């Protein structure tokens, strides 16, 4: 009888403890939700997004996050809370504060998610490292290589690949009347151009009409995985950047990294005489020279630089080319205007007969307008470029933000700001860049989220 009573008392006590624990956990959850909501309660946005990043993860999984962000800013204004500690900024006027050198806004935990793997470990680069000191060490030796003067010296490489591009189109489609998926071929062209200027050799996309070493698919898969994981960065730290898991199951080296490493090893094995014989010296030769002059640069930087060239240069260039051609075809009047400009320049003898040079092309105002409009209307990155508010805090769009708040601007949103680009900001209209108001043109140029001090220098040749 006594044993039965003891057991009943123990069961009753356990039940009471479980109830108390449940109540405590519930109260802690309520407190957490209140504190989480209160942190950015002054910023409007979807209610559920105030408590969990799963909301913005779902947007990314639809592959239409850029359009979701555009709609959110139309509904809520220039500031939208899209996560418990994340704010999307829509005002282009805030570009300088958030991304300029004087703002001290460091990159968020989103960026390491973008790092490819090499030899079982993540490899940081200029774009995806959070370490400001490492960024400076890696950028300083090569910054001059990406000056416009140096980039123009690579024209012969571009012209060589362009010749192959047109020959392949003639042979495979013009002479056979077969249907051509121009989008795919522009992607191949961009990859081979980057191969030429980086390694003095095309990668073989055009001649082989193929995805060499699965590089195109690898880049697509890389960003397809990184975009959603970047919304819940703890998953990346737990799975992709977990040292214990990497020791047990080393992640495979990215095909791009592997290719870049092999090319760099081949070049380093050449004699100085052989290397100097290369046509005008490609990026890899200049990278090797830059590395040899700076002891602070880590050994893996050579691979990181060449990998970044391929990752950043090929895709952005292809997107820009496809956007230009797509919209010229969709809006025939602009195609006619561009053709007329080119014909008039040719009739005046202002264009080379074989391949138009950069010095000639930069003096064609409507062509320049088409390029700017393509970069405005279809920026290559469809998510916000996240930064962290510095320790002193910040005032953005007139509202205060505490240190540690993640903020960022989605170019798809900023580039459609009607107060800057006009009431037709959502459509293709190159003529907006030809307006007589110089002040307005400069305002539009400053409102493009393209090349900022903290973006990789190699984005210029996109």
From TrEMBL:
Entry keyword Calcium: no
A Pfam match: p450
MF terms in GO: heme binding; iron ion binding; monooxygenase activity; oxidoreductase activity, acting on paired donors, with incorporation or reduction of molecular oxygen
UniProt keyword annotation of Chaperone present: no
UniProt keyword terms in alphabetical order: Iron, Metal-binding, Oxidoreductase
A biological process term (GO) from this entry: secondary metabolite biosynthetic process
Superkingdom classification of source: Eukaryota
Cofactor: heme
PANTHER family per UniProt: CYTOCHROME P450, CYTOCHROME P450 MONOOXYGENASE APDB-RELATED
The protein's name in its UniProt record: Cytochrome P450
Species the sequence originates in: Heterodermia speciosa
Lineage: Eukaryota, Fungi, Dikarya, Ascomycota, Pezizomycotina
